[in-house]
Structures are given as structure tokens and as C-alpha cells.
């Protein structure tokens, strides 16, 4: 036990002079990792670098990426959203149930499904901002509630989707899968909101120093409503995309996806302590996960080992996050 | 104070530490560019220099926080490498940093024992820990319960806890980076008594301050840094204006250039404000064109009142009116809309987003105003930021520099700058010039003048009494959570203010 740590906590650690290229690499480590992964897999498997496979990877990445874009907002504020997988499933179930069982016109059903996602997000925010629950607990509760409601409404079995909605899973022409287009659109929206809008800038400030943000006149509670609301809305969109690919809404769909989403955000360079994160980073993070899963499949690595590998990758990403923070604080 | 005037050469012993040609570069800035400095046992060696001159960077190399790019550090005649805080400690070097390193959630006792709490059967011995903490706190004369979370102390008390923490190390080299920046006269006296006592025991002390009047009181020698270079070394008895010239490169003819404006309508009215356990029955007004000083001892409740007025905290009784309209309680946003602004005392905890860049921080208060239809005019924000950074003379590598890496004084300028941009009609300044060098202070006073000249008003809290006396048109004095009195500029003197500041304290004890 050295006294040292207490004296040094929070001040600059010994810093080495860094080359600009090294600095760029540290900032864009995820992108470099993705490129290495793609090159490596192309060499290892002849099937990897084919159009069909790459489109497949894109479609695989889409749901995780859309969820992760929503979670990016939350993580930048220094919060966490564990409920997105369940909310995605609930929204899809509501959509299918309204359109099929209740005979609501499908565009209306889609709107209601989106509203369900939004409301779940707002409920999270209310618990966090006004109920002062830690985000982990509030969204863990929502994880259970939304999943449970999905099971209740569907009575535990899949519900078929109206045809119009299943077309969302189609591919336009030969090369434009709609899920990929939706992912790109959501990514651009995320980037725009984060970098250009009042709320975007405000949530970086909240994540960086909530008290300083509040004393600068930012209505922190309202921004949290927006943040978690967006996360819920994005989850609903992801749920619809996922259901359209499967042609039915399943109450157990997307379980565990929240962890992939969080992993994608963190791999993409966001900091779980808030204030840092980018849409592009999250996009790359989601691609890394999808490429990794796809590659391991192509290399016939067993599903059991795949879990191990993915776990290790997540650990490495978070480790590099903490190391990076150590180096800059 | 008596032994203060006798020459101290007797106590000063041999050289303990020396640095030669020290150099340190950060991306975009050369922070140190050839610094020579030496330290003897039993002396207080003052480091003097403008904001960003490199004082903190120098001492961080002695404490192992940074490694020099060139040059060497010699301790006891041997060149050494100080690779981390562990090395520094083995060499007997303890440091009080300019920015606090306390854990706000932990208690004072835990902070004081951090890293090596006393143990019994492998468990932390809380009783012993608090006992030790009480001793340390008594030594620096701070009256707080060791069980209080540090986050609840004001910054002056936090500073005293930092000092106590460093004293506990019993080092032979003690480095103090602006320990007096937030202390009032009585704590400064106390600190100086401790410093003199340590010096007489042969401890070598490096002391950084922007309060030049303190230099002859505790210092022996002064090394002046300018733009990362050690330019000269002079005795601490050097006249103040000479020190200023050495440090800034030009003389300053008027430290407090207050130009009183004719007071207009009352802009801010506070009536019977009270919160249990903090302050009671506080009533005052601030008129257009006025600078009203708010003086008092640490713990008198000045910051609490300021925060309540601004809506940062709530209150139990009374009301706050801006331009005749009452403000809702505890609503910062409403207070801002009504035209209030607050530069908080704790820049790290409440003023800045340390991980964000300068432009981002300067634009935070005006973010809403710079938005149209939800979209921020970032180019406009940047222009405004560049303008105010220029006016305040912020020393930076660019607007994209992370605020965390600015020097302390320059960070403070950012907190002030973001509120200057807000154009608040009543600006509350809580220790506005904390850590700001003498030259830049004058710039800030001039900005205050131009605010009041254009019909705005300023309420200024400061522990720096000369600043209160030099810049206020009226001085309010608080003691024990109450307004003890009000003095017009011409009747306010060091003695009259202090008399009020301690008066109520004794009254309160009688009851
Ligand atoms: N980690 C860092 N990264 C980049 N620049 C830095 C870093 N630390 C310090 N600097 C720069 O080095 C210069 C010297 O800073 P330093 O903190 O030593 O100044 P100072 O003399 O202590 O000033 P002050 O009186 O304001 O405390 C400043 O321009 C500062 O911006
Ligand atoms: Mg400094």
C-alpha cells in the first residue's frame, strides 16, 4: 500500500510524448481493429469477402447497430439502458398483435409500436430523473417489465406480421437490404443529433459534468427524458426491423441484445463514465461484433467458443477504454 | 508573526533539490523550456509566474506526475528519476496540488487516510482513523467532523483538508501549489504559522501563490518563471511592483481600476432569505451599475446564499426578485431566463466540463440562445468563444484544447468567460479571481467595469479582502449565516469588515 495513489488520483499520470499518428490510432482503435479483422478473415476464409456474405453481415449488424445508436445517447450522459432488447421485442409484438389480431391498418400499428418504445424510454427516464433510481436499476426493471408484457400480449407464441411490414426485411435490387438502409439512416440521424443539435451538445455536457451542466442552465431532467426516449424509440425501430426479417414477431426475440448494443457502443470508443461517444464509433463497434460472429461461423468455430471469443473482445474493448482514460486524466 | 521579521538565513541549510534545464512539451505547447531552480532545507521558495507560465508543470515533475523531456533533477547531489508518486514519496517529497484530489463521496477521515487506513484484524479501524483525522484537522485548525463527506465542504475547507493530508506524510520537501487561493485571512494566517514552523524544523517548502503580499510574509527566495523559462531569482523582500514587473514584463499601475457608475434601479432584490442550518433572514439589493461585495469568513454562508439566489439550491423562507419579478425556488433555468448568472467557486466540480474542449465549455451557457429549431449554430459559438478567450487572454494551444489540460488560472478564465458571453444582467461571482495572476486580474476587473458601465450589476463574493475593498461600491458582510452589516465603499476598511465578520459570531455564542 503506497500513499502515492491518493496524492496522484485525478492528476496527470506520467505521459509519454505521442506522435500524431499514435494519437489517431488511439482515437480510432476500433476502426483499425475492424480493418484487421476483415483482412484476416478474407485470408482465412474464401467465403468471407463475397457480396452475399458481406450483405449478410450488414443485415446481421443492422439490428444491433440500431439498438446501439439509441444506447449511445444514454451512455454519453453517463447512464446505461439495459431494457432495449426487451423493448424491441415488446414493440414488435404490439405491432403484430394490433395489425393481425385487432385488424388495425398496418401504418397505424407501426406508429403505435414506435410510441410503445418511446413510452418505455420515457418511463425509464422518469424513474431515473424524478425517482432518482440509478439507471442500471431503472432499466433492469424495464427489461423485465417489457419482456413480460411481450409474453403476456403474445401469450408466449410468435405472431405473424402483416405482409406490408415483412417487406421491410427485403433487399431492393440485389444489393440494398432495407435493414442496412435503415441502419445507415439511423446512424446519420444519431450523428446529426449528437453533433448539431442542442440536445446532443447538452447530453455531452451532462455526461461530462452533470452539476456544471445544470448550473449552466441546462434542464438536465428534460434532456434525460429526451435521451432515454430516443433510446426507446430506436429500440422499437430495431424490433420492427428484426421482426420483418423473421416475418413474425416473437416474444423472446432480441433477448440479450442489450448487451451487444452496449458492447458495440463501448467498443466504438464511448466511455461508460459519460461525456464521450460517437455515432460512427458505435457503427464500427456493431460491425466488429457482426463480422466476428460471421467469421467465426465461416471458420466453423462452435457456438460455445464464439461466446468466449466475443466475451474476450468486449473485455479488451473496455480495458482499452479504461487504459485510455488513465492515460488522459 | 514576531520571528517573521528576523532574517531566516540561520534556519536555511544545505541544498536538498535542484533542477537544471528542465523541459516539457505537450501537444501544441512547450510548457517548460529550460527551467533552473534549487531548494534548500529550511527555506520557503516561492514560484512566481503568470497563468500558464509553467509553475504547476514544474512541480508535477518533482512529484512524479510528469516526466521531463529534457534536463535533470538532482536530489541530495544525486541525479534522480522520479517515475511516479511512489518515487517522490521515497525521496520525501509531498505535494498539495492546485486542483483538489479528494474523493467527494468519502468522508473527511477516509480521505485523510486514503491508501493506508489504520487496520485491525485486517479490517479498517474506523475509530483510529477518525482519531488521526481529528488530530490532523486540529493541526490545521479546521473544525469539521471527520465523518462529513468531503463533497459537502466548501472549497476553502477542502483546501485545508488537502493541506492536512500532505502534512500527514511528514515529508522533507513540501510543495504547495496555490494553497491560499481560496482561503480567507484567518486561515492564511494559520497556514503561514504552520509553514514557518515546518521551515524552522528544516523542511524545504515550495510555495506558489498569485497573492504577492504573501511573499514577504512567508517567503525566503523567489524564482520567477516566464513562458516556461526561469528568468530570475530574487529575495522575497523584493518590492511588490518589482515582482510584478519581473513576472508580467510591465508594471501595473492600478491593481483595482474600479470606476463607479451611478447606481440605477434595483435589479436584484433578496428578501428574508433563509434555509435551516445554513443562513437566515438575508435581505439586500443590488442596483444596476453596482458592484456589491459580499465578505465574510469561510463558513459564513456566502456561497450558500449565492447558490440559493441563483436557484442552484432551494431555500425555506423569503423571496428573490429580479427586475421586480419573483423567481421560483431552486430553478436555475428560470433564474437564467430572468437575467441572473453565477460563476461558481468550485471550477472543477461545478464550473467546467473538464473532458470537453475550450469552445464547448465557453459555449455552454449560451447553447440555448445559439440554437434555432433545435440546431446549434456551432460556427457562431466558436466565433464568440474565440472572442472572449482573446479578451481574457486565455493561454491555450487552440479552442480545441481539452480544458483539463489548461493551467489552473486559465481554467478559471474559462468559467468567467462562459458567463461573460451570457450577458446576464446580474452576475454573481463567487471567488472569481481564484488562481488568476495579477495582470489578468486587472483585465477581469476592467471587464467588470464595462459590465456595470452598461447597466449590468455584479455581486462579488471573495475571500481576498483587498479585492473586495478595491472593487466594491458597497460591501455586505456575513457572519454565521446572517448579514452582519453593510458598508459603503468609503467606510469599508480591512478592520471595519473584519470587525463585522467576527462580531455576530460572538453574539451567536452568547445565546
Ligand atoms: N496535460 C497537458 N496537456 C497539454 N498542455 C498542458 C498540459 N498541462 C499543462 N499544459 C500547458 O502547459 C502550460 C503551463 O501550464 P501550468 O499548469 O504549468 O501553468 P501554471 O504556471 O501553473 O499556471 P496557473 O498560474 O494558471 O496555475 C499551459 O499553457 C498549459 O495549457
Ligand atoms: Mg498552476
UniProtKB/TrEMBL annotation, chain B:
A GO term from the CC aspect: plasma membrane
UniProt xrefs under Pfam families: ABC_tran
The UniProt record lists the keyword Iron: no
Topology with respect to the bilayer: Peripheral membrane protein
Gene Ontology molecular function: any one: ATP hydrolysis activity
Ranges of residues in domain ABC transporter: 17-252, 262-505
SUPFAM superfamilies: P-loop containing nucleoside triphosphate hydrolases
Matching PANTHER family: CARBOHYDRATE TRANSPORT ATP-BINDING PROTEIN MG119-RELATED, GALACTOFURANOSE TRANSPORTER ATP-BINDING PROTEIN YTFR
Protein name: Ribose transport system ATP-binding protein
Amino acid at each position: 500500500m503506497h500513499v502515492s495513489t491518493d496524492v496522484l488520483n485525478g492528476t496527470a499520470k506520467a505521459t509519454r510524448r505521442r506522435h500524431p499518428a499514435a494519437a489517431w490510432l488511439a482515437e480510432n482503435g476500433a476502426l483499425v481493429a475492424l480493418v484487421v479483422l476483415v483482412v484476416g478473415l478474407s485470408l482465412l476464409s474464401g467465403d468471407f469477402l463475397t457480396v452475399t456474405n458481406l450483405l449478410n453481415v450488414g443485415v446481421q449488424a443492422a439490428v444491433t447497430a440500431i439498438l446501439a445508436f439509441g444506447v449511445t445517447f444514454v451512455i454519453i450522459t453517463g447512464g446505461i439502458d439495459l431494457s432495449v432488447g426487451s423493448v424491441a421485442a415488446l414493440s414488435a409484438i404490439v405491432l403484430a398483435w394490433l395489425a393481425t389480431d385487432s385488424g388495425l391498418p398496418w401504418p397505424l400499428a407501426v406508429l403505435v409500436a414506435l410510441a410503445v418504445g418511446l413510452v418505455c424510454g420515457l418511463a425509464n427516464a422518469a424513474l431515473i430523473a424524478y425517482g432518482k433510481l440509478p439507471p442500471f436499476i431503472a432499466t433492469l426493471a424495464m427489461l423485465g417489465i417489457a419482456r413480460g408484457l411481450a409474453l403476456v400480449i403474445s401469450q408466449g407464441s410468435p405472431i405473424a406480421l402483416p405482409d406490408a411490414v415483412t417487406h421491410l426485411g427485403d433487399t431492393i435490387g440485389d444489393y440494398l437490404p432495407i435493414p442496412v438502409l435503415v441502419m445507415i439512416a439511423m446512424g446519420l440521424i444519431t450523428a446529426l443529433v449528437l453533433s448539431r443539435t442542442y440536445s446532443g451538445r447538452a447530453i455531452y455536457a451532462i455526461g461530462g459534468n452533470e452539476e456544471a451542466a445544470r448550473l449552466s442552465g441546462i434542464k438536465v431532467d428534460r434532456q434525460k427524458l429526451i435521451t432515454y426516449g430516443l433510446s426507446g424509440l430506436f429500440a422499437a425501430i430495431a424490433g420492427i426491423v428484426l421482426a420483418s426479417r423473421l416475418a413474425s414477431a416473437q416474444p423472446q426475440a432480441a433477448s440479450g441484445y442489450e448487451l451487444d448494443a452496449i458492447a458495440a457502443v463501448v467498443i466504438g470508443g464511448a466511455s461508460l463514465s459519460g461525456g464521450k461517444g460517437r455515432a460512427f464509433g458505435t457503427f464500427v463497434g456493431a460491425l466488429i461484433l457482426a463480422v466476428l460472429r460471421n467469421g467465426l461461423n465461416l471458420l466453423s468455430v462452435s457456438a460455445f467458443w464464439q461466446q468466449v471469443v466475443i466475451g474476450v473482445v468486449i473485455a479488451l474493448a473496455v480495458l482499452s477504454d479504461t487504459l485510455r482514460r488513465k492515460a488522459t486524466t | 508573526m514576531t520571528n517573521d521579521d528576523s532574517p531566516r538565513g540561520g534556519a536555511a541549510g544545505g541544498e536538498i533539490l535542484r533542477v537544471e534545464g528542465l523541459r516539457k512539451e505537450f501537444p501544441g505547447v512547450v510548457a517548460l523550456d529550460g527551467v533552473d531552480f534549487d531548494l534548500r532545507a529550511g527555506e520557503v521558495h516561492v514560484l512566481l509566474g503568470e497563468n500558464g507560465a509553467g509553475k504547476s508543470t514544474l512541480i508535477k515533475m518533482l512529484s512524479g506526475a510528469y516526466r521531463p523531456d529534457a534536463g535533470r533533477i538532482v536530489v541530495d547531489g544525486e541525479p534522480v528519476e522520479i517515475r511516479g508518486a511512489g518515487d517522490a514519496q521515497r525521496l520525501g517529497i509531498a505535494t498539495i496540488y492546485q486542483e483538489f484530489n479528494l474523493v467527494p463521496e468519502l468522508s473527511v477521515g477516509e480521505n485523510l487516510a486514503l491508501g493506508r487506513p489504520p487496520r485491525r484484524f485486517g479490517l479498517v479501524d474506523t475509530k483510529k482513523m477518525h482519531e488521526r483525522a481529528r488530530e490532523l484537522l486540529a493541526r490545521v485548525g479546521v473544525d469539521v467532523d471527520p465523518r462529513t463527506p468531503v463533497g459537502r465542504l466548501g472549497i476553502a475547507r477542502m483546501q485545508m483538508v488537502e493541506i492536512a493530508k500532505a502534512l500527514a506524510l511528514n515529508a522533507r520537501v513540501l510543495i504547495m501549489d496555490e494553497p491560499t487561493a481560496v482561503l480567507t485571512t484567518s486561515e492564511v494566517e494559520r497556514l503561514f504559522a504552520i509553514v514557518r514552523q515546518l521551515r524552522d524544523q528544516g523542511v524545504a517548502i515550495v510555495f506558489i501563490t498569485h497573492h504577492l503580499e504573501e511573499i514577504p510574509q512567508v517567503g525566503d527566495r523567489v524564482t520567477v518563471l516566464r513562458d516556461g523559462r526561469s528568468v530570475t531569482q530574487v529575495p522575497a523582500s523584493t518590492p511588490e511592483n518589482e515582482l510584478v514587473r519581473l513576472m508580467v514584463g510591465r508594471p501595473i499601475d492600478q491593481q483595482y481600476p474600479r470606476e463607479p457608475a451611478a447606481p440605477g434601479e434595483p435589479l436584484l432584490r433578496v428578501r428574508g432569505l433563509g434555509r435551516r442550518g445554513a443562513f437566515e433572514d438575508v435581505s439586500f439589493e443590488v442596483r444596476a451599475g453596482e458592484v456589491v461585495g459580499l465578505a465574510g469568513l469561510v463558513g459564513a454562508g456566502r456561497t450558500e446564499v449565492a447558490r440559493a439566489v441563483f436557484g442552484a439550491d432551494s431555500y425555506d423562507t423569503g423571496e428573490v426578485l429580479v427586475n421586480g419579478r419573483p423567481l421560483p425556488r431552486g430553478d436555475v433555468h428560470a433564474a437564467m431566463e430572468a437575467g441572473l448568472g453565477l460563476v461558481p467557486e468550485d471550477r472543477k466540480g461545478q464550473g467546467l466540463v473538464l473532458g470537453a474542449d475550450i469552445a464547448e465549455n465557453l459555449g455552454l451557457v449560451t447553447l440555448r440562445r445559439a440554437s434555432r429549431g433545435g440546431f446549434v449554430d456551432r460556427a457562431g459559438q466558436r466565433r464568440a468563444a474565440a472572442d472572449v478567450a482573446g479578451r481574457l487572454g486565455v493561454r491555450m494551444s487552440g479552442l480545441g484544447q481539452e480544458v483539463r489540460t489548461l493551467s489552473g488560472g486559465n481554467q478559471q478564465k474559462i468559467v468567467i468567460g462562459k458567463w461573460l458571453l451570457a450577458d446576464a444582467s446580474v452576475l454573481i461571482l463567487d471567488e472569481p479571481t481564484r488562481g488568476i495572476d495579477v495582470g489578468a486580474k486587472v483585465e477581469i476587473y476592467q471587464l467588470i467595469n464595462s459590465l456595470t458601465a452598461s447597466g449590468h450589476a455584479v455581486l462579488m463574493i471573495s475571500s481576498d479582502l483587498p479585492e473586495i475593498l478595491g472593487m466594491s461600491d458597497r460591501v455586505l458582510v456575513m457572519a454565521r449565516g446572517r448579514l452582519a452589516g453593510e458598508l459603503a465603499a468609503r467606510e469599508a476598511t480591512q478592520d471595519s469588515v473584519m470587525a463585522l465578520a467576527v462580531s455576530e459570531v460572538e453574539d451567536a455564542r452568547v445565546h
